[in-house]
Amino acid sequence: MKTLDTALKLLKLFETEEQTLSVTEISEATALPKSKVSRLLADFRANGFLEQDEQTRRYRVGLAAFELGSNYVKSQPLAHAALPVLRHIVDQTGHSTTLSVMRGDLILHILAVEGPHYIDGRWRVGNRLPFHATSAGKVLLAGLTPAGFNAFISSHKLEPITPSTVTDPAVFRRQIDEIRAQGASITRGESAPGLVAIAVPVLGRSNETVAALGLIIPDRFFAEDQTDDLIALLHEEARTLSIKSGAADYPYGTADKSSKPALTRSTLKA
């Protein structure tokens, strides 16, 4: 079992944004001798979980790892239910939509549908997100218990990613309090210049936050007077996902569809 634990820790090194790793880099990161690292890498390569570049001799994630990760999304009821919801939001707005979850101290996009106005913000499916600089991350943190949130913040620094990133703990805590009350988060250029992101919570059986439903908008297409309509749309769709996930109630937005504004691409700034 110790060997298995060591092998899994080695494989987890490939969760980072580094696309390839050498035997030396892995040996230094794990404090394992190169001979043992090479044996473990050979096993992963033989089973398709890692591949080795014939020229550089560096390792990267293999197809077997991709297939295993893809099966996670396929087997999750929430992700299965979310895909048509994300597509509907794209059809309504023309902007990219995402579904994000919290795994330990990581925020991950597990599902996304790109809209016609998509621009590369570097945060793609499977990537770790900066928890304090993304709307999805803030929504997921707001869903923690007060004790859980305090423990998380006390052990994580608010590193600057762009000049707009909130790095003052007092300001950040006030934002989280507002998100808890309003059920929505908006960030503008905090994790990537030129991007506006809006996210709302998706609730589970105990009405706990299980995911964040998000919308990513290029700044040049965003107008302040659209904000309420966009949040209303996200709340409507998040309510649908929450009920399908077993939530007894969704306290944000309104369940009366007749009172919601009609939101179509023609109403959005272009």
DSSP summary: helix tally: 9
What is the arithmetic mean of pLDDT?
87
Q: SSE order, as H and E?
A: HHHEEHHEEEHHHEEEH
Derived structural class: alpha+beta
What is Rg?
20 Å
Shape, principal axes of CA atoms: globular
- Say how many strands there are: 8
Low-confidence stretches: 264-270
Estimate the strand proportion.
15-25%
CA(first)-CA(last) distance: 57 Å
The major sheet is characterized as: 6 strands, antiparallel
The proportion of residues forming helix, as a percent range, comes to 40-55%
| Strand order in space, largest sheet | 5-4-3-8-7-6
Written overview of the protein:
By secondary structure, the protein is an alpha+beta fold. The protein contains nine helices and eight strands. Helix 5 (77-93) packs antiparallel against helix 9 (227-244).
